Amino acid sequence: MTATAGGPGSWSENILEYFLRSNQITAEDGAQITWYHAANHKAQVNEALKSTAHMIEADVLLPSDGSEHGQPIMAHPPERNSDNTLQEWLAEVVKSNKGIKLDFKSLAAVEPSLMLLENVKRHLKRPVWINADILPGPNGHSRVVDAKPFIDTVTSFFPDVTLSLGWTTGWHPEKVNEGYSWTMVKEMEYICNELNQPVTFPVRAALVRQSCSQLLWLLKKSHSLTIWTGKNDNYSTEDLLFIRDHFDKKQVFYDILEPQNHEFKQAIGIKVNL
Predict the structure, then answer these.
(1) Phi–psi pair at 183, nearest 5 degrees
(2) Bridge partners, 57 (sequence order)
(3) Hey, which family's this protein in (predicted)?
(4) Are 149 and 116 in contact (CB under 8 A)?
(5) 128 burial via Cβ count (<10 Å: 0-12, 13-18, 19+)
(6) Cα angle vertex 165, ends 266, 118, to 5°?
(7) What is the rounded CA–CA span in Å between residue 160 and residue 126?
């Protein structure tokens, strides 16, 4: 894992460097980056583009009814239809200066989506992240996007894109939830060992504290974590502050829901624009 970030305007440019360079943040601190999550439908995209978010995250899949000639659409399962195609989504987002993260739930959607992305590449001089869950994780199911064909397809189109490689996870309020095990992180490290571009690992906030040693080990070669949260997960601001205290601030991004996002930013002295 000797990946290095790319130069200014490349898709693998470190997002902290990009947003610092464009005077949108004031320090190399992942907590300063704000996210708009699941900007799939047209109304959500419009809202995301008007917001102060630095990064827009959205979900890509192929429609279930064969409409649009199998053109990728913007929806998160269990939804299988949308009022927005990826082509339309990209046409709007390229007009902004926001970074993008595209989340794939199936391998079938990847190649047609990358072909559309290739058409607008010259207009996207900013960070682009491509995400998929490629391994089963804590309480996760085995329905993952197959790692090798996913990574091979993405890197054959865009060797300079930032990869976001995660685990499927579950969280149960009535039981003790195990964290990311040594087996899980070592399997991920093995997959990433030959990659030349930056990798971020999306990890579930409620499972990080009990996996601190494993995730610190995984980050030893300069990759990053993106902390995300399930809608009904039970975790505290203290858990987020624990992550803040134990990991390098340059290596952790927080794509978390309200009200915890606001409470966390307040606790660490970062102003939140509502």
Answers:
(1) -60, -45
(2) 101
(3) Belongs to the menorin family.
(4) no
(5) buried
(6) 105
(7) 11
